[in-house]
Amino acid sequence: MNPIPVPAAARRRSLACGLLALAPLALAAQTAPSLTDLSLEQLSSIEVTSVGKRVQRLADVPGSVYVINQEDIRRSGAVTLPEVLRLAPNLHVARADANQYAISARGFNSVLANKMLVLVDGRTMYSPLFSGVFWESLDLVLEDIERIEVLSGAGGTLYGSNAVNGVINIVTRNAAETTGTLLKSGAGNRENLLAGRWGGSPHPDVHWRFYAKRLNMDETHNAAGAPIRDSSQRNAAGFRADHARGKDQWTLQGDVYQAELTQGPTERRISGTSLLGRWARDIAPGERAQLQAYFDRANRDQPGSVDDRLDTIDIEFQHTSRPLERHDFLWGAGYRRQEDSLRNLAPAQLQLLPNHRRMNLWNVFAQDEFALTPDIRFTAGLKAEHNSYTGLEWLPNARVAWQATPQSLLWAAVSRAVRVPSRVDRDAFTPQLNLGGPNFDSEIARVAEIGWRSQPSAAVSYSVTLFHHDFDRLRSVDTQPGGLGFGNSYEGQLTGVEAWGRWKVSDTLRFDAGYVHQKLKLAARAGTAPLPGGQSQLGNDPRNRVNLGLSWDVAPKLELDARLRHVGSLPLPAVPSYTALDLRVGWHVRPGLELSLTARNVGDRRHPEWGAPGSRAELERAIFLKAVWRL
Predict the structure, then answer these.
(1) Are 446 and 470 in contact (CB under 8 A)?
(2) Which residue of 6, 433, 463, 600 has the smallest Cβ count within 10 Å?
(3) Checking DSSP bridges between strand 116-120 and strand 166-172, what pairing results, if any?
(4) CA distance 232 to 234
(5) Which helix (H) or strand (E) holds 19?
(6) Mean pLDDT, residues 128-142
(7) CB atoms within 10 A of CB 510
(8) Cα(47)–Cα(174) distance, rounded to whole angstroms?
């Protein structure tokens, strides 16, 4: 039974009243930490795992990695995870409507972007329907995120297929860090939310937390002011338990979500559940073993299109050790089984056949990082991955890093990555066309990078990366026997630079800046003749992006944050360039109670970020008032 719709204005009034009614509950708790309490040395020492799949200091990582930590998330004023990702200068984040986003690094962006791998605590979020992420189904309590590591560049050796242009690795906080009660309520002219998280410790070695969240998104409008009809109501809940004793650590966590999303005259219904378990043992200094397994079920019911259920079982083991002096050796193996069952609800339109498909993927990998000299380290790795569509794929990687000075690192890398076929590539049919077919092969990327990371003073740090990607066998629409079909008739080259830096002016003032320039050239492979204009289905990307940020502790209890971004124009379909300014004012009313007011798109009444003229959403100025209580 569908819920009785509640007018948006009434929902906002109700939540605004909730802010006032719950305020007396905030009596005592720890004050939220200020980002200015962290020195740049401490920020450079943040531990990441994306490049080596082992704990490393950010300053030592031979790769293009940007880290969004919990304090960045808090001060962003973001309501949803995709809005948090705007903080990463190496990502192009474009909002298509109230619920859908196009998010990618280094080109090929689309709502169905298929060259970025997204992980949440080691759980792969991509869908084998199109090899991408349904962002509207990824709804976390932002306060429970420890950090987000955004790796741009190929990550296939450690993460496998689809990590072609980058990896977004979301790491949530250990339950020991989230004891007590957190209540959050927010209301604005575009969205409103309620969330709660409760944590405890029945034993000194055991910690747990439980969360529940509801988020409502109001519909957007097109350039003429007509509603797009894309409102949504989302609900999510979950838990995490951590147990540490001696050399062993155990984690058990699960999530469940349900959402109803209006899309024009129909309503999409999505739901899902997951359960993940992980065991790790610190065997000796430098030696660690880890075993992780999870089950995930995702349901997507879109009237007039498909009713789909995807079940995923995944298990992975990895082991790190130091078998020889100056060597850090990592090896592992994994297996994933996915069963996709769907009903095609519109036989006169696009269908996926067969209705049921079982997909198996297994892999083994090894990587060795060793010191050539006291200042130069070399990394070589290889993954062998077998999938149900193209069989065995080889994913090698080599990196070298030179510690030029104690504060500066010069690194270079070469990698090979693949994007394996999805169900759309192989199984898509219409009554007139056989779009999918057994001949569609994996897309290939060969990536070369060189980067420089430095902290020349206690107040300044920066990172610069030059990159070049050679792409082969990119997806095309070709004339084939029996009609049109997907082929591998495009090749391309991507060249660019990505840079970001941070300047801590004082203990109360910090500036951030980021810039990305990229140029993509696509052409038909020799001996092929794809349909003219087919390149547009590969993605839509700006050549230039600029991000500027300011974080200022105006007074002991008052903070101001400003984020300015400029995104260049998109070619096809044409989307004009835009500049957006977001402002946030935060007030620590008392220990444990924080109020904030965030204004988005200040200075510009509305602008588009994605889609074709006439039907696309125009993103309007938005105000959001939020209260967070930590009890």
Answers:
(1) yes
(2) 6
(3) parallel
(4) 6
(5) helix 8-22
(6) 91
(7) 22
(8) 15
Q: What are phi and psi of 17, to 5 degrees?
A: -65, -35
DSSP annotation of 8 = H
Measured over the CA atoms of residue 128, residue 133, residue 137 and residue 139, the dihedral's sign is: positive
Element of type H or E holding 427:
helix 423-427
Q: How far apart are CA 458 and CA 41, in angstroms?
A: 7
Alpha carbon of 229 to those of 150, 257, 286, 620: distances in Å?
A: 32, 22, 54, 15
Sign of the CA dihedral running 601, 607, 609, 611 = positive
pLDDT tens string 66-118: 999 999 999 999 999 999 999 999 999 999 999 999 999 999 999 989 999 99
CA distance 14 to 18: 6
Give 299-348 as a DSSP string.
EEEETTTEEEEEEEEEEEEEEEE--STTEEEEEEEEEEEEEEEEEES-TT
Q: Whole-model pTM?
A: 0.92
pLDDT, tens only, 343-358: 876 665 778 888 899 9
User: What is the C-alpha separation between 276 and 120, in angstroms, rounded?
Assistant: 11
> 3-state DSSP call for residue 23?
helix
Provide the 3-class DSSP secondary structure of residue 228: coil
Q: Could you tell me the two tokens for 282?
A: 């610190």
Q: How far is CA 421 from CA 115, 228, 310, 389, in A?
A: 11, 32, 17, 7
Alpha carbons 503 and 249: distance in angstroms, whole number: 38
Tokens of 15: 């939540």
> Residues 363-386: what's their mean pLDDT?
96
The answer to whether 299 touches 272, Cβ cutoff 8 Å, is: yes
Cα separations (Å) of 49 from 136, 170, 445, 508, 580? 26, 11, 23, 30, 32
Whether the per-residue pLDDT at 446 is higher than 70: the answer is yes
Residues near 218 by beta carbon (within 8 Å), at least 6 away in sequence: 8, 98, 189, 190, 191, 231
Token pair 């002016």 is at which residue? 505
> What's the CA gap between 242 and 72, in Å, rounded?
25
Angle at 135 between CA 13 and CA 390, to 5 degrees: 170
3-state secondary structure of 22: helix
As a whole number of angstroms, the distance between CA 381 and CA 415 comes to: 9
In angstroms, the Cα distances linking 95 to 135, 502, 517, 618, 619 are: 11, 26, 20, 10, 8
| Close Cβ partners of 273 (under 8 Å, ≥ 6 residues apart) | 254, 255, 256, 257, 296, 297
CA distance 312 to 336: 7
